[in-house]
Amino acid sequence: MMSRNYRITQKKLYILLITISILILLLSLEALMEVKDRGLFLQWFEEVQSQEEISISEAEAFDTYVSGHILLYMLNLVIPLGFALHTFFAYQKAKINSLFIYLWFIMLMGGMAFTLISWNFDSLFYYIRLVAYLVLIGTTLSLSKEVGISKNW
C-alpha cells in the first residue's frame, strides 16, 4: 500500500493552531488560578494534614502544592505543544500521511481522557478544555478524509 502524502491547508492549520493556543491559554490560566488561590491551598493543606500522620509546616506544604501544580501543568502541555509543533513543521517543511493522523488521534484522545479523569466538574476550564480537544480531534479526523484513509479504522 502506498502512503499518500497531503499538505495541510492554511485554513486547517489556523484552526488547529488557534484551538491549541486557546487550550494552552486555558491551561495556563487554570494553573495560575489554582496556585494563587489561598482558599484552595488551605483546603488541600487540611486534607493532607487529616490524611497524613506526618506534620509539615504550611510553608513546606505550599512548596509541595506549587510543585505539584507545576508538574500537572507541564504534563497537560506536552500533547498540545507537541501537536502544534509537529503540525506547524509538517505545514512548513513536509506533508502529512496516515501515520500523522493515527499518532495524533491517539495522543489527543489520551489528552482528552487525562482531562476527563480529573473529574473537575465545578470548573469552567474543564468543559472548555474538553471542547477544545473535541475540535482538535474532529479537525484531525477531517484530515483523514483528505489523506485518503479508509472510514472503517
Plain-language structure description:
Helices cover 78% and strands 0% of the residues. By secondary structure, it is mostly helical. The protein has one domain.
Write out key terms for the chains shown.
mainly alpha
Shape: elongated
Q: Care to count the β-strands?
A: 0
Using the CA coordinates, give the radius of gyration: 19 Å
Largest sheet: none
Strand content: under 5%
Mean pLDDT across all residues, rounded? 83
Report how far apart the termini are. 15 Å
Total domain units = 1
Which parts are unreliable, with pLDDT below 50 for 5 consecutive residues or more? none
H/E element order: HHHHH
User: Which structural class do you get from the secondary structure elements?
Assistant: mainly alpha
Number of helices: 5
Helical proportion? over 70%
Summarize the structure.
With 153 residues, this protein is an all-alpha fold. The protein has 5 helices and no strands.
Question: How do the strands and helices of this protein lay out in sequence?
Answer:
Layout: H1 10-36, H2 38-51, H3 58-92, H4 98-116, H5 124-147
Helix pairs in contact: 1-3, 1-5, 3-4, 4-5
